[in-house]
Write a structure and sequence with these properties.
Distance between the termini of chain A: 60 Å
Strand content of chain B: 15-25%
Number of helices of chain A: 14
Strand order of the largest sheet of chain A: 1-2-3-7-6
Oligomer: heterodimer
Number of strands of chain B: 14
Number of domains of chain A: 1
Number of helices of chain B: 13
Helix content of chain B: 25-40%
Structural class of chain A: alpha/beta
CATH architecture of chain A: 3-Layer(aba) Sandwich
CATH superfamily of the largest domain in chain B: Thiamin diphosphate (ThDP)-binding fold, Pyr/PP domains
Shape of chain A: globular
CATH class of chain A: Alpha Beta
Structural class of chain B: alpha/beta
Helix content of chain A: 40-55%
Strand order of the largest sheet of chain B: 3-2-4-5-7-6-12
CATH topology of chain A: Rossmann fold
CATH class of the largest domain in chain B: Alpha Beta
Number of strands of chain A: 7
CATH topology of the largest domain in chain B: Rossmann fold
Largest interface: A-B, 50 and 40 residues
Order of helices and strands of chain B: HEHEHEHEHHEHEHEEEEHEEHEHEHH
Largest sheet of chain A: 5 strands, parallel
Radius of gyration of chain A: 19 Å
Radius of gyration of chain B: 20 Å
Chain lengths: 325, 344
């Protein structure tokens, strides 16, 4: 922990601000869902915040990410606008995707966020392609490919990892192991549940980190990003974590044992991020409270923006889709 | 840039070369577009040193180097996915899928990803990829290497679908496909690679997507076909001409977008329609074309539309059995005579 004294207060405050933003965003979205203002599926990132925040803190503006169905955290950590996110999730034309995509398809391509994905494993190879593109164009961009314990079981993971390895591409596969693929525990889905070990079979370096520890995630990601830029990619990070609740907002998660849930509540990534800011960043409780108040105000503003935004325009939509006939 | 192609009648281009192979025409299209645009690159299985199984990518490695001519591992889903990612970030990949049958391995990437990214993101991006592949029967390759699967792609909003029947169309349409910002499925036919025909000179010979062509004008019956059913239909037309039946052969060339007007104009003129497809009858493109014609030109039709299509079966290995499964000249002739209600 000593070496962590190197972090500046502003850096730690930035991490905590993002952790807390994701926490508040997801909590508010669940409320909006219960109020009937969000339809469809909503897969909260609660409990996994440190992974997106730690990885994205290691990325630069030239870098890319591909995300998953549980993607709000990746968007926020990549700097997405809460107003446009909330508008999208509530189906408004002012949202990132004009209300066409919803929770599972938020993207901000101009910022290198190539999008969430409704198909588990669907985005893995797309991320490899972004890295290929950077290499072919002589740019030093890296792509963080977020996937999961569920995603690793899909054949696309092995294919994409192999392709990235064969072509020495600057990809960091971030396996968010929240230990359940919908309801199936990871140890039932495979024989070797230490998922980072798969990397070795492809000649790739991989590592398991505490996914609830934002600094540990950040340090590994920063090391891998640096080495990717030297042409030494790809890499695999397995970030061990835990979903605070069921697969989606309507899944009570009854298959998740209480003692397990309690254990992970004790190492809550958001609370730990707050501790880092106070202990390593010497922030006062007033300073922390100020950050939290600011985040909450921003979220209030985003919800108000979404609610005041006009809905959709069906006539305009019908004109726009003529490109598909 | 496309003006040359749209304003000059292709057959009237002075400097046409008469004996260009279909595969050579494709190769020229790739090389010219790669010279023209540094973001174009090709990838696929055995396409670099080996030049591809049908030699469509021959010599590209020597000219463009290994950063633009990529041999992939045998992982169709992920190299197609990689092409999508590259397309989202500034490149124009042309992917070769060795057999259309292998494209079944990429359906998630193509259908759920490539076709939908633009839409799902509210038009934030485009996916300019071309997926070159080849289908059809004729080489004794049996059930997993002989299918005609265009209907699967025709069905998916967000994909364009091109099926050239001649060397000139192959070249002009491939160039247009590479320049297009949508994902394009470009289906060649394994029996067409060695066929020859005239191809206009010039780097700007581009055939816009959505422009069909009357391959043979005629007055009595409209024969709509594409890909390898075009040469077969033209042979039929010549044979029937000897019997006094004047067949118009219409090639949509691109099934998406579809040149509906060309088709309907012909139908309004001849008032009789036969649609020929190599693919199996059930759920095929021909059925949809028949529905379109019926909806939009019903009053002009003198007889029910005839569809000549493949039998509803996987393709067998044995030559006699394979032949029995796919429309032959006799099948087309009989259908034409049925719609015209003439004997023989």
């Amino acid at each position: 922990m000593d070496s962590r004294g190197q972090y500046s207060k502003s850096f730690l405050a930035g991490l905590y601000r993002q952790l807390y933003t994701i926490r508040v965003f997801e909590t508010r979205c669940i409320q909006l869902y219960r109020q009937g203002l969000i339809r469809g599926y909503l897969h909260p990132y609660l409990g996994e915040e440190a992974i997106a925040v730690g990885v994205c803190a290691a990325l630069g503006p030239q870098d890319y990410l591909t995300s998953t169905h549980r993607g709000h955290g990746h968007c926020i950590a990549r700097g997405a606008d809460l107003r446009r996110m909330t508008a999208e999730i509530t189906g408004k034309r002012t949202g990132y995707c004009k209300g066409r995509g919803g929770s599972m398809h938020i993207a901000d391509v101009s910022q290198g966020n190539l999008g969430a994905n409704g198909i588990v494993g669907g985005s893995t190879a797309i991320g490899v392609g972004a890295a290929l593109s950077a290499k072919l164009q002589g740019r030093d961009s890296v792509c963080a490919v977020f996937t999961s314990d569920g995603g690793v079981m899909n054949g696309t993971f092995g294919e994409a990892l192999n392709l990235a390895a064969a072509w020495n591409l600057p990809v960091i596969f971030v396996v968010e192991n929240n230990q359940y693929a919908v309801s199936t525990p990871v140890h039932q889905a495979c024989r070797e549940a230490e998922l980072y070990k798969r990397a070795a079979g492809y000649g790739v370096e991989g590592k398991r980190v505490d996914g609830n520890h934002v600094l540990e995630v950040y340090e590994t990601a920063a090391d891998y990003v640096r080495r990717c830029r030297q042409g030494k990619g790809p890499f695999v990070i397995e970030a061990l974590t835990y979903r605070h609740a069921g697969h989606h907002v309507n899944d009570p998660g009854t298959y998740m044992p209480e003692d397990e849930k309690e254990y992970y509540r004790q190492i809550d990534p958001c609370r730990r991020g707050r501790q880092f800011l106070i202990e390593l960043g010497s922030a006062s409780s007033e300073e922390v409270a100020a950050i939290e108040a600011e985040v909450e105000r921003a979220m209030d503003d985003a919800v108000a923006f979404a609610q005041e935004s006009p809905g959709t325009d069906v006539q305009q939509f019908l004109e726009e889709i003529s490109v598909y006939s | 840039m496309n003006k040359t192609a749209t304003t000059l009648p292709e057959a009237a281009t002075a400097a046409s070369r008469n004996q260009v192979q279909y595969r050579t025409a494709l190769n020229e299209a790739l090389a010219e577009e790669m010279r023209r645009d540094p973001t174009v690159f090709v990838m696929g299985e055995g396409i670099a040193e080996r030049g591809g199984s049908y030699k469509v990518t021959a010599n590209l490695l020597a000219e463009f180097g290994k950063n633009r001519v990529l041999d992939t591992p045998l992982c169709e889903a992920s190299f197609t996915g990689a092409a999508i990612g590259a397309a989202l970030t500034g490149m124009r990949p042309v992917v070769e899928i060795l057999f259309i049958d292998f494209a079944m391995l990429i359906m998630d990437q193509l259908v759920n990803q490539a076709a939908k990214v633009r839409f799902m993101t509210g038009d934030q991006c485009r996916v300019p990829i071309v997926l070159r592949t080849q289908g059809g029967t004729g080489n004794g390759l049996a059930a997993q290497h002989s299918q005609s699967l265009e209907a699967l792609f025709y069905h998916i909003p967000g994909l364009k679908l091109v099926m050239p029947s001649t060397p000139a169309d192959a070249k002009g349409l491939l160039k247009a496909s590479i320049r297009d910002d949508s994902p394009v499925v470009f289906i060649e036919h394994k029996l067409l690679y060695l066929t020859e025909g005239p191809v206009p000179e010039g780097d700007e010979f581009v055939i816009p997507l959505g422009k069909g062509q009357v391959k043979r004008p005629g007055a009595d019956v409209t024969l709509i076909a594409w890909s390898n059913m075009i040469p077969r239909s033209l042979t039929v037309a010549e044979k029937l001409a000897a019997e006094g039946i004047d067949v118009e052969v219409v090639d949509p060339r691109t099934l998406v977008p579809l040149d509906k007007e060309l088709m309907l104009d012909s139908v309004r003129k001849t008032e009789h329609v036969v649609i020929v497809q190599e693919a199996v009858r059930r759920g095929g493109v021909a059925s949809d074309l028949a529905a379109i014609i019926q909806a939009e030109a019903f009053d002009y039709l003198d007889a029910p539309i005839e569809i000549v299509a493949g039998l509803v079966t996987p393709i067998p290995f044995n030559l006699a059995l394979e032949t029995a499964c796919v429309p032959q000249e006799g099948d087309i002739i009989r259908a034409v005579k049925r719609v015209l209600n003439v004997g023989g």
